Every structure is written in C-alpha cells, then in structure tokens.
Amino acid sequence: MGAYILKRILLMIPTLLGIMLMTFAVIQFVPGGPVEQVIAKMQGTDSDSTGRISGNTGNEAGGSQQAPGSAGDGTAFKYRGAQGLDPEFIKDLERQFGFDKPAHERFLLMMANYLTFDFGESYFRDRSVVSLIAEKLPVSISLGIWLTLIQYLVSIPLGIRKAVKDGSTFDVWTSGVIIIGYAIPSFIFAIMLIVLFAGGSYFSWFPLRGLTSDNFEQLSLWGKLADYAWHLALPLFAMAIGSFATMTMLTKNSFLDEIRKQYVMTARAKGLSESRVLYGHVFRNAMLLVIAGFPGAFIGAFFASSLLIETIFSLDGLGYLFFKATLDRDYPIVFASLYIFTLMGLVVQLVSDLTYTWIDPRIDFEKRDV
Q1: What does the pLDDT look like over 100-119, one tens digit per residue?
Q2: CB within 8 Å of 164: residues ≥ 6 apart
Q3: What is the largest CA-CA distance in the chain?
Q4: What is the pLDDT, as a whole number, of residue 173?
Q5: Exposed, middle or buried, 164 (CB in 10 Å: 0-12/13-18/19+)?
Q6: What are the beta bridge partners of residue 128?
Q7: 121 pairs with which residues across the strands?
Q8: Are the C-beta atoms of residues 306 and 147 closer than 8 Å to each other?
Q9: Contact 331/68 with Cβ under 8 angstroms?
C-alpha cells in the first residue's frame, strides 16, 4: 500500500502543475486585466471588453507579484483608454502588479511560492489571500457539511426502501422524482425558490440573502439557531434537490446486488426475519461503497455547488469570493483558489481510495495499474 500511495502522490504533482499551467496560459489572452481596470477606473471609463471595474487607484493597487495576469511587455499603447497617462506611470503599475516580468518567470515564481502556501496579497482588497480565504471558509464549510448530512440521511433510507420495493409503484415514482430533480440545474431551482418564497413575486417566507439576520448577535441561543436554519433553508434545498439521485441509486443498486447473493438466501433459509437479514447482514456489505464515497461526496458538496448558490443567495463564502475575484481580475485570489481546490480534490480522491481498502480489505490497489 505504501508504494501505491507514493505513486498517487507523485502523480498529483504533474496533474496540479498541468491544471495551473493551462489556466495561466488561458488568462494571458483574457482582456481587461488589473492594470487595464485601474486605468479605466482612474479615467472613469468602462467597456464590455475590460470586464467589471472593481479596484482602487494606482496608489492602492500595489500587491503581490506572485500571481500572474494578462498584462504584457509594459508599453502603454496596448491598454485601451490609457491615452494621456504617463508611460512611466503605466510601467509602475505593471511593477506593482508583477507584470513587468516575462510570463514564464511569473508562472515559475507563482508556483515556487505556492509550494510553501504563500499566496501573496489581493490586488484590490489590501489583505492577504490566506486571510480572505480563512474568513470565507466557514460559510462554504457550513453549506458542505449540512448538504452532505441531508444527502446521506435522505438518500440511504430511500435507496434501501427502493431496493426492498424494487419494481413497485413506489420505486417507479420515486425514481421519476429524483431523476427530474437531478435534471434541473441547481441555480435554476434556486431562482425558482427565490421567485416563489423569497419575495420575488409570491411569498416572502425566507430571506433573500445572507447567512444571518442583522440582529443575530442580540438573539438568544435558540433564536440564533432558528435564524441560521431560516437563512440556510432555501440554499440547501436548491443544492440538495439534485444531489439525491446518485446516492439513492447507488444505495439501491448496492442493496439489490447483495440481496441476490447466496449468503442472503442461506440466512433466509435459516429462518431469520427479513429485517434481521436486511440490516444484520446485507446492510454492512451494501454500504461499503456508499460509506467509502463520503470524502468525495463532501468535497463535491463543498466546492461544486457552492459557487452559483452562494452567488445567487449572496452568501459570502469561497464560491462568492472566487466569483467576485474573477470579475475583478483579482488574480492572486483566482489562482490561489484554483490551487487549493485542485489540491484538495486530488488528496480527497486518494483518501476515498484508501477508505475503500480500509472498509473492504479485499480491495488491493497495488495489484492494479494506477
């Protein structure tokens, strides 16, 4: 097992490097970099090609030189709207953002710093990227944890019931419902919920944005819990509606596969009750795949759905931070988020594989090609 773990860790290096390199290369061709945005902000101009203007003036634009952007060789004429500005001032802006270096030097410098988790400073927020991520992390973790718990608490009993009632009317109708839910994009469902229940056009039963109310600190303990649940209801429902299908069908198929095995027939022949057979014998074996997939399910809930949902409901988490940073061309945050998300995804995938071997020792990845 040690050799397999070492191989997987070594494979993470080129995978992570390749993802970062491709993203870096694409960004070199994206118009409206931070220097151009500062220039447009100073001159009071804006255009579709430069993207959103969300930055400070040149004196406040100084930041890390560790994250690359889309600026080039330092000449003023390439920045649309830069007419009338001193070319030396343009070059000074490039030095502040770290764009005075060639692209390959910027990339190597960035990756060297990222090896020590030095993500530098935000271009426009005057704070370190690490502190910004740490500040937004609790919101995304909260969504991920609750979504994973709801997903397992609903999908596992439902999957077991569907396996027991395989082919029945209950099985057919529930399959139709969860497949429809899976087919509806979470952001579309979120917009529907806002229109219906958050004051969009019909009812105002739930808050439109945020994770807590303005008077949260003045509430009692139970009041805080109720307020927290009230704000989480719509975002979690929008995220969860499409997440039940995979887990439910995995649970159902796992149970069906075990129910048809010889040892189940033997247990029934011995006179054991159906509940004893189902939960005393089948459950332990059928749940191996479901339990082993928990790390991956949590990371999927933590990252995959949070971006659009946090943006739609204005939840100030990692997804919303990444979205704003992308619009603002705040490249240190963009690249740091990509690096962290990718690294965590690779590590969790390895943990998931190791969990399989821990739950079922018969699985041996060392005998298979990586």
Answers
A1: 778 888 888 889 988 888 88
A2: 255, 278
A3: 92
A4: 92
A5: middle
A6: 121
A7: 128
A8: no
A9: yes
Beta bridge partners of 308: none
Q: Give the position of tokens 């710093």.
A: 113
Q: Which residues pair with 198 in a beta bridge?
A: 204
- Residues forming beta bridges with residue 204, ordered by sequence position: 198
Task: State both tokens at 238.
Answer: 């929008």
237 touches 230 (CB < 8 A): no
When pLDDT is cut at 50, 70 and 90, the band that residue 205 belongs to is confident
Cα 197 from chain centroid? 26
Question: How many Cβ atoms sit within 10 Å of the Cβ of residue 362?
Answer: 8
* Distance, C-alpha 365 to centroid of its chain: 28
Helix (H, G, I), strand (E, B) or coil at 120: coil
Q: Which residue has the tokens 């997440």?
A: 243
Contact in structure between 309 and 319 (CB atoms under 8 Å)? yes
Measure the CA–CA gap between 310 and 187, rounded to whole angstroms: 10
pLDDT bucket at 179, cuts 50 / 70 / 90:
confident
Is the entire prediction scored with pTM above 0.85? no
Q: How far is CA 264 from CA 161, 252, 286, 363, in A?
A: 17, 16, 12, 22
* Closest residue by Cα to residue 256 from 326, 161, 189: 161
- Residue 354's closest CA among 362, 341, 365? 365
Cα separation, 79 vs 330, in Å, equals 18
Residue whose pair of structure tokens reads 């971006």 in the numeric block: 307
Retrieve residue 301's tokens.
């809930």
Quote the tokens at residue 205: 């039963």
Tens of pLDDT, residue by residue over 82-106, are 555 566 666 766 666 667 778 888 8
Burial bucket for residue 120 (CB in 10 Å: 0-12, 13-18, 19+): buried
